[in-house]
User: Which sequence fits this backbone?
């Protein structure tokens, strides 16, 4: 049996944009996992009806997000789980804490280790880990900063504390790399990201680019700097005259919605967990998120 859930669907997340992205990722992988084995999933009461007719899916209903950790523990204790994967945000250590729970049990985690999430989920720790191996925007130590106009008057300013990061702005093409990471690192696709004032609004998956091989190489070099990255990993990149590694996402990203692999991504994740050699074909398509 496979334990698989997505945090927005499990918690009843109210942000419609985040919820749409979460559902896109969850639905994509859920269908693939169900073609392999039975699946058990945590699903909020508001969304149970969307999934109640899925064959071979066992739903553990969540009424309040505070129940998630307790019910996750209960599933791992009571069910015979072979593989586990959670999609969750790094915010407030949510992904880290859920992964720590999975690691307490004798199941194969299809995602990254908690130690890797601790680093890759923190933009400053990521900067420290990769800055000597790849180009990345100059990033300042998190502390209290005052930001004001150079010619402001009237004492106007903005104050940012240690929860914010000040980073050099790099202009260029917004791209990402999708990888499967295990004993070997397999590049899946190079993707174009569409970003506006609302944030990430879609992508063009598996694009061609004159620097594609070099971008793959830089992404792989960055990933090798953080021990414990595993399974699907997304690397955000900006390309101008040079290749800048911006972030490493230690989790499934929305890009998988437009990523078509044969065998399926779910099959590749399980083969990777079993240390099998991966052979696959990749196609991609453009997709948008209505925010």
Assistant:
């Amino acid at each position: 049996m496979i334990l698989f859930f997505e945090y927005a669907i499990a918690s009843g997340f109210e942000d419609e944009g985040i919820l749409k992205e979460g559902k896109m990722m969850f639905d994509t992988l859920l269908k693939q996992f169900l073609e392999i084995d039975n699946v058990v999933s945590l699903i909020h009461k508001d969304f149970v009806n969307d999934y109640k007719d899925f064959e071979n899916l066992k739903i553990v209903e969540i009424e309040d997000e505070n129940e998630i950790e307790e019910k996750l523990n209960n599933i791992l204790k009571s069910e015979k789980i072979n593989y586990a994967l959670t999609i969750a945000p790094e915010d407030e250590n949510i992904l880290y804490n859920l992964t720590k729970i999975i690691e307490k049990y004798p199941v194969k985690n299809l995602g990254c280790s908690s130690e890797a999430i601790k680093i890759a989920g923190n933009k400053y720790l990521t900067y420290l880990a990769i800055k000597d191996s790849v180009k990345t925007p100059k990033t300042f130590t998190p502390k209290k900063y005052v930001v004001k106009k150079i010619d402001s008057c009237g004492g106007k300013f903005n104050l940012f504390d240690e929860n914010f990061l000040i980073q050099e702005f790099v202009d260029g093409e917004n791209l990402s790399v999708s990888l499967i990471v295990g004993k070997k690192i397999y590049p899946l696709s190079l993707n174009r990201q569409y970003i506006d004032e609302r944030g990430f609004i879609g992508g063009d998956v598996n694009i061609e680019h004159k620097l594609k091989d070099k971008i793959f190489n830089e992404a792989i070099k960055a990933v090798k700097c953080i021990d414990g990255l595993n399974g699907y990993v997304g690397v955000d990149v900006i390309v101008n005259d040079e290749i800048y590694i911006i972030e490493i996402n230690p989790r499934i990203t929305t890009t998988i919605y437009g990523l078509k692999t044969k065998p399926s991504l779910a099959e590749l994740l399980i083969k990777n967990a079993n240390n099998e050699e991966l052979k696959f074909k990749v196609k991609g398509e453009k997709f948008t998120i209505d925010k």
Remarks:
- The first strand starts at residue 2 and ends at 6.
- The longest helix spans residues 16-34.
- Residues 47 and 257 are 20 Å apart (CA to CA).
- The two ends are 34 Å apart (CA to CA).
